Amino acid sequence: MRSNDEVVEYVNNLRKKQGMSINELARETGLAKSSLSRYFNKTRGFPVNKVNVFAKALHVKPEDILGVAPTGLKTIDELGMHPVKIPIIGTIACGSPILADQNIIGYTTELFDGQPEGALFALKCQGDSMEPKIPDNATVIVRVQPTVEDDEIAAVLVDDDEEATLKRIKHIGNQVMLMPENTKYDPIILNKENPGRILGKVIKVSYDL
């Protein structure tokens, strides 16, 4: 199976061999030209969950793009890639469980190499505090767990248990520092006066197209 960079190079070379411009590929796939450019420039990971869309546009099989040998595994299922339907969480109702119906604003389907562990939910990112690691409008997949290790990125409930934010975690004594990736933002300190609650660990980032 090809690596991310190899998949990108295969798709880009296939596009060129077929005389297809990025504009034409964007039209055929229904994706934004700017997103395609980022994939081909390798500034964003290739969206494996969209492999069928690219395969149809380029008149090949998804297995061709993924680089599955003809004598080897044939399908995504045989590769151990499992589509998982994940609820997208909006503003979290005060006091309600994370995955309560009133919190769910939609669903996304993601491919995983094997069955993921634990309950999962997704958040749509707003803002640039976690760029370049997590850009604005990205979708993050979060595994529900009450604690994370230092330097891991977590979804944290703040603002009176109503708003979820994404930050890198750093424990200092009895305080928790929520660290942005973007240096123009200041850390958020969680303590008795400004409490918060870890909802889970970010395990995957997908990019809106």
UniProtKB/TrEMBL annotation:
<dbReference type="InterPro" id="IPR015927">
    <property type="entry name" value="Peptidase_S24_S26A/B/C"/>
</dbReference>
<feature type="domain" description="HTH cro/C1-type">
    <location>
        <begin position="11"/>
        <end position="65"/>
    </location>
</feature>
<dbReference type="InterPro" id="IPR039418">
    <property type="entry name" value="LexA-like"/>
</dbReference>
<dbReference type="Pfam" id="PF00717">
    <property type="entry name" value="Peptidase_S24"/>
</dbReference>
<protein>
    <submittedName>
        <fullName>ORF 221</fullName>
    </submittedName>
</protein>
<dbReference type="InterPro" id="IPR010982">
    <property type="entry name" value="Lambda_DNA-bd_dom_sf"/>
</dbReference>
<dbReference type="Pfam" id="PF13443">
    <property type="entry name" value="HTH_26"/>
</dbReference>
<dbReference type="InterPro" id="IPR036286">
    <property type="entry name" value="LexA/Signal_pep-like_sf"/>
</dbReference>
<dbReference type="InterPro" id="IPR001387">
    <property type="entry name" value="Cro/C1-type_HTH"/>
</dbReference>
<dbReference type="InterPro" id="IPR050077">
    <property type="entry name" value="LexA_repressor"/>
</dbReference>
<dbReference type="GO" id="GO:0003677">
    <property type="term" value="F:DNA binding"/>
</dbReference>
